[in-house]
Amino acid sequence: MKFNICAAKPEDCKDIARMIMELAVYEKMPDQVKISYKELEKDGFGPNPFYQCLVAEVPEEHKSKDGHTKVGYALFFYTYSTWKGRTVYMEDLYVMPEYRGKGMGKALMATVAKVAKEQHCVRLQFSVLDWNKPSLDFYLSKGAEDLTAKEGWHFLRFHGIALDNLAQEAP
Amino acid sequence: MANFILRKAEPKDVSDILRLIKELAKFEEMEDQVILTEKDLLEDGFGDHPFYHCIVAEVPKQEQSVDGHVIIGFAMYYFTYDPWIGKLLYLEDFYVMKEFRGFGIGSEILKKLSQTAVRTRCSSMHFIVAEWNKSSIEFYKRRGASDLSLEEGWRLFKIDKQNLLKMTDEE
């Protein structure tokens, strides 16, 4: 099946928001999605973009049963490792179920890798849920290493009230 | 003691920042993995497109460290993006020299970072900690942090330069 990978445009945000929700449903956490396409537009296409996004598009004759031609995306941003320097963090990688197995996931990720190379980044990082076997297998086949297993890294966060409390903590 | 100030890092601080990065890496038993140089830190933090932000803790000359340093702590952070909740502050490195611990410097740095997160309308502050680093995990949990690796099963992955290049060649 023919498809195109290109940089997302502001008008793609509705499709990206739709697919973000589909991925959240797959990850069993749909109630955690709090932002809409409006925030995505503001945060990704303003004077100071907080993320970059690629979209996978199919021609009109291959549109989805719901009528969509934007069928996959990769959302990423630049981070920094105090050991190695510039890094790319791939926050989301998603292809709609009916379009899987056609090389789109691979192409999206390879394009992210191309951008990383152009920006002299030394590493691509991302996270995967421990039960997500299809994704784990896909990434391991591309040479990914599980740093949580290998080096014991855990993700922590201060969120919502915990963050507010910390900001107000007396010295 | 406990006479200190927190301020934004300046280009002249890169030598101290690298020293502290290496001290922290040594504590994490990965000192040989630091390949970053002062030149990288200068270009990447103080150029046209900063990849990171940094605050440093400074003591007066009369309270300098045993080795004669006045920059005795630092925190490096940058902004990332969660497609579910928007902007995040990501804490990459956070370190206070051993001889200056227990005086509230770490707490004050964390408070300043959380104030920055709230002021820039970030929903959350994220970071990673090695699971064997019990004292740091306790420090963060006491202040309201949650462990997403334990609670939700997230695992951190990386793909290094060699495999990234392989991916771009394949396309």
From TrEMBL, chain A:
The lineage of its organism: Eukaryota, Metazoa, Chordata, Craniata, Vertebrata. One of its GO terms (biological process) is polyamine metabolic process. Keywords: Acyltransferase, Transferase. It comes from Carassius auratus (Goldfish). This is Diamine acetyltransferase 2b. InterPro entries: Acyl_CoA_acyltransferase, Diverse_Substrate_AcTransf, GNAT_dom. Residues 24-171 form the N-acetyltransferase domain. Coiled coil: none annotated. Belongs to the acetyltransferase family. One of its GO terms (molecular function) is N-acetyltransferase activity. It comes from the Eukaryota. PROSITE patterns: GNAT (PS51186).
Automatic annotation (TrEMBL), chain B:
PROSITE patterns: GNAT. Keywords: Acyltransferase, Cytoplasm, Transferase. It comes from the Eukaryota. Residues 4-166 form the N-acetyltransferase domain. It is found in: Cytoplasm. The keyword Transmembrane does not apply. Its main location: cytoplasm. The keyword Cytoplasm applies. InterPro entries: Acyl_CoA_acyltransferase, Diverse_Substrate_AcTransf, GNAT_dom. Its EC number is 2.3.1.57. It is an enzyme of class 2 (transferase). GO terms for molecular function: diamine N-acetyltransferase activity; spermidine binding. Pfam families: Acetyltransf_1. Pathway: Amine and polyamine degradation; putrescine degradation; N-acetylputrescine from putrescine: step 1/1. GO terms for biological process: putrescine catabolic process; spermidine acetylation. It catalyses: an alkane-alpha,omega-diamine + acetyl-CoA = an N-acetylalkane-alpha,omega-diamine + CoA + H(+); spermine + acetyl-CoA = N(1)-acetylspermine + CoA + H(+); spermidine + acetyl-CoA = N(1)-acetylspermidine + CoA + H(+). Coiled coil: none annotated. GO terms for cellular component: cytoplasm. Homodimer. Belongs to the acetyltransferase family. This is Diamine acetyltransferase 1. It comes from Carassius auratus (Goldfish). The lineage of its organism: Eukaryota, Metazoa, Chordata, Craniata, Vertebrata.
